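Internal QA ticket QA-208
Title: Verify multi-chain structure generation after dependency bump
Assignee: T.L.

Test input:
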Amino acid sequence: MSDPGNLAYTLHVNGAPHDVRDAWVGESLLFVLRERLGLMGSKGACEQGECGSCSVLVDGNLVCSCLVLAAGAVGQDIVTIEGISPGAPSDVQQAFVDAGAVQCGFCTPGLVMAAHSLLDRSPDPSELEIREELSGNICRCTGYGRIIDAVQRVAVARRSAS
Amino acid sequence: MSVLTGTVTGERVAAGRLGESAVRPDGLAKVQGSFEFSGDLSADGFLWGATLRSPHPYARIVRIDVSAAWNVVGVEAVITADDVPGVATYGLIDQDQPVFASQYVRFVGEPVAAVAADHPDTCRRALDAIVVEYEVLEPLVDPERAVDGSHAPIHPAGNVFRHQRIVRGDQTLQGAVVVEGTYELGMQDQAFLGLEAALAVPDPGGAGVELHVATQWLHEDRKQIAACLGLADEEVRLVLGGVGGAFGAREDISLQVHTCLLALRTSRPVRMAYSRHESFLGHVHRHPCRIWMRHHADADGKLQRVEARFVFDGGAYASTSSAVLVNGITHAQGPYHCENATVDGWAVRTNNLPCGAMRGFGVVQACFAHEAQMDKLAAAVGVDPLEIRLRNAMRTGDHLITGQVVESVAPVERLIRELAEMPLPSEPVGGHDLDPMRLPGGAGRTADVTDVVRGIGWAVSIKNLMYSEGFDDYSTARVRLADGVATVKFATAEVGQGFVTLAGQIARTVLGVDDVVLDRIDTQVGSAGSTSASRQTWMSGGAVDGACRLVRERLFEHVAAQHDLDAVQLAIDGTDVIDTVGTLRLPVAEATAGLVIDETFEHHHRPTEDLDENGQGNCHTAFAFAAHRAVVDVDPVLGLVKVVQVATVQDVGRALNPLSVTGQIEGGIAQGVGLAVMEEIIQVGGHVKNASFTDYLLPTFLDMPDVVIGLVEEPEPQAPLGAKGVGEPPTVSSTPAVVAAIRDAIGKDLVRVPVRPTDIVFG
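Actual output:
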């Protein structure tokens, strides 16, 4: 892989510019993040925006990266699971581990992104609000109970810290 | 009974030993996105692989012409059945499934060819360029036509995978009370999130290959793959790629042989990754099943005889259908005392999608039927659903209808009594704030609260644990202790269930160490058996425990020799070796300085037997029990259901990690609720109508009820750690509980799952 390939476009991901080379214009943001930029944290499980495993932030909005054309995200600020809290885990990430919200973990990166997005917009969500806000993310292992617990733990901790 | 509920505790769980809610060692990597799933694996110079599949449920292949695929720029390999160097077929029990179809295709989605190329879209164009001429044949889609022999064989091995009867006791007994019904279950998909994916790396210049794959049983995969590749087992090395859930769907081979063949053919690494559509076609599913039952009881409702007939639709290839059948029919009585039985069971071949293992493995089907029957019996006798179950509750020492004595702890009566004490939902229909989101139909805001009725239903289950019918089931673990660090090696597939957590807990507890290193999960150690049948806590837990105990014996011998003590008086206390009758207290880390102890242990469970022609024999290993109560709100006009709460009390033996147990129970109930009210692969004439997450409905956060959990912890004497498997029971009896609750709400005789709006409105 010594040939760097032809520059197709540049994406702004996790605070830094990333050159995308040799890309076909039809490639989804999910594919480009994973296969062109090596950011494998975002997962694909349905390719049609039903499961939320590929959730990333684009200009602050939670989106399914499988439904976004990468070439259409040029000039936008993209944050992936790798960029949500580089280095030490975020409070949401730590709460997911501690609360038992992770089993196979395939849905987890998308759910961590969705939980961050929810708690940034609504610091004190009701249980029903958590369920509604996260209902675009499917988990097949946990039955969701421990994930709700994790989100509630973060909300409680953030309130007591503020 | 300990009661666990979904409250905010805010406490950090303990790190460590058996009985504590230790957190996953892979948890941090998973939340940070750095955990490598099999689909995330790559290698320099890799190619993408892809599969061409049959569009027909049943057809003769007249001609395959791959020449145009070779003309697509970027294509490096095109392979068909002609390129399989070893045996042409594979399978878990009977090897009847072709690696690639050659003469006939027998289900929609059956692999016909595969390609390797530089980009997934190059693969797609190459697959499009392959010409396959089919002579379309009339598919066999009605399993009854396989039973009655009215359809010509669609496979040389015939249309019946297995027929098995159970005949026990009085065959003419007629009860004072007789209830009867016919029940049906649709085809459920495991729908794990992490799609099938693998990376095959050919050995440089050699015949061998290393396959990184998400699977449930590395050694069984290797055996089947090596046979198809025409290689010796040791020339095929398997490494567990990170597994994004399994639930039975990864027990069979899917892309394993194809990926290896393409890698060996091109001498380059090959990645294959299924799409969701392809995944629905590319793995086995839960068997659709039609069950007739007639229960005979005395005037007090005491069960005297069960008659039943089961027909499992196994689809095109055998997979584990014969074992699923036996599981179903041998659990026909449910967790109840019953001396007489007449059961007839069939597992048959059709041109529907192949079926095999899914969480509950045949018992889900049986339980849906026997629990509906118990409610009918209660109504006929004039007692409530709990009373009928208490009157018949199975006890340790009872006989199954196979003649086998239930030696396991069987706290059925206790489960039912404690379930009855669990709190009911505190909120009325729609919640105190009457939020439309809490009504059936949710955000659609279609249900009118005045139409909505609430119902309560109950169900109880018995589920066998581990493998049955004479299979020598075992698991292997190797433990190395050096300088206070235990390194544990096993081939146990971690699919999300948390065995990696448990293995560390066992090693820390038995060896008194804080530091446990888990070695790579691969075939460089003996088999662990499958991560299925609720068996790994018992089997691989037993193996790790056994290896740790061997290491500890040698540690004690070493310490005893050094300090002139008798090894039998030494024990582990926390992280120290202590002399129980003296004063020595020595940290394990210090005791092992400069010492390396390395032991391997195989745990086998007690032997089991085949069934005879009358279905008699000690075919199962052990049993676990669970009881479920569901509360539902139903709009009978619109046919909408909201499952409000599921309460459960489960017989777990011993909760080695209460948080993991909670996760298994909640997750299992989610799949049971899904089968009850929404999940079904719909096939029409063998064609699949909903192979996507848009059309195959899965429970979301909003569909999932509150779950209230009680555990009965009566340690199981046969189990190495006193713990029973906990994965399957939550799925088995949650489905019938939900359906019983819907029946209770609307007063209709619902006989099929998933319950559809039309069943509620017009049923």
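Spot checks passed. Residues 145-161 of chain A form the longest helix (17 residues).
Status: verified.
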